[in-house]
Amino acid sequence: MSRIDAIAARCARIAEARAFTYAISAVIVANAVVLGLQTYPAVTGDAGALLNTLDGVFLGVFVVELAIRMLAHARHPLGFFRSGWNVFDFVVIVGSLLPGLRENTTLLRLLRLARIVRLVRFLPDLRVMITAVGRSVPGVASLAVLTVLLLYVYGIVGWLIFADHDPAGYGNVGDAMLTLFVLLSLENLPDQIEMGLEVSRLTLIYFISYVLVAAFLLFNMLIGVVLSSFEEAQEIEFRRTQDERRAAAAATDDETDDRHVALLDHVHELRGALERIESEAQALVADGERRRGG
């Protein structure tokens, strides 16, 4: 093993160590506390120099952490930048060292604040949730458009029915859409039904249909989009973690790490196959019940 390979292997083991992850997470939390204390004039007046010193110490720790992670990819330096989190860490930490940015108080504080966001990379579950939020944006955007169309249609109908009886809530389509948007929470549904009954009992059809379509159907569709995005995020996170494990294993001559990565791949494939078999079995059972019922 060459010297570069030995350094890369040692740094990879350090970067993957649980103690290293906990230590960096503790430093990030401490950095967040210091950043919060610097917002109090009384505290900065008494201990401003100490807080600035601690901030410099934290930055030094982050520089060492970044160096270790980069050295772990010494055999393939560009592999470090294939991870979005590595790129984010590089920009935040190196940016804090640039003279031009350090002289700009606002940008420097923003970079210090960005260091706190780095805690996400050490919390896998939170990382999955953030990825899921990003994956759900297109579906949520489509639902938002559908919701606006629904509010507009029901708003026009509500204006036609209640404009004279409740001008504050349905005086124009804008007021009607706002009233219906608040109605999505169902908090004021009894009041709206009571107001509608003063006009006609047929207004129950208007409110019940709106609640069924908007409050129930759309919310269930939103939940479905989020759950689907969460499953996609879990798959993405697993693949990303496996790529990191595979890169770390490639940096060493120990075949145990390679077998461990391969075993995790096989377990993941087996779990996916079992889920597909379960889904197909449930579909067959449901189809059989429909045929017997018919």
Write the layout of secondary structure elements.
Layout: H1 3-16, H2 18-37, H3 41-71, H4 84-97, H5 99-102, H6 105-117, H7 124-162, H8 167-170, H9 173-183, H10 189-197, H11 203-250, H12 255-293
Helix pairs in contact: 1-3, 2-3, 2-6, 3-4, 4-6, 7-9, 7-11, 11-12
Overview of the molecule:
The protein is mainly α and 294 residues long. It folds into 2 domains: 120 residues, Up-down Bundle (Four Helix Bundle (Hemerythrin (Met), subunit A)); 128 residues, Helix Hairpins. The chain is built from 12 helices and no strands. Helix 4 runs antiparallel to helix 6. The longest helix has 48 residues. It is flat and about 85 Å long. The mean pLDDT is 82.
**Overall structural domain count:** 2
Q: At CATH's second level, what is the architecture of the largest domain?
A: Orthogonal Bundle
Tell me the major beta sheet. none
* Proportion of beta-strand residues: under 5%
CA-CA gap between termini: 71 Å
Helical/strand content category: mainly alpha
Helix content: over 70%
Please work out how many helical segments DSSP would assign: 12
Question: Could you spell the SSE succession in H and E letters?
Answer: HHHHHHHHHHHH
Q: Which outline best applies?
A: flat
What's the Cα radius of gyration? 28 Å
Instruction: Please state the average pLDDT score.
Output: 82
Task: Outline the low-pLDDT stretches.
Answer: none
How many beta-strand segments?
0
Instruction: Look at the structure and give the CATH class of the largest domain.
Output: Mainly Alpha
Which fold name corresponds to the CATH topology of the largest domain?
A: Helix Hairpins
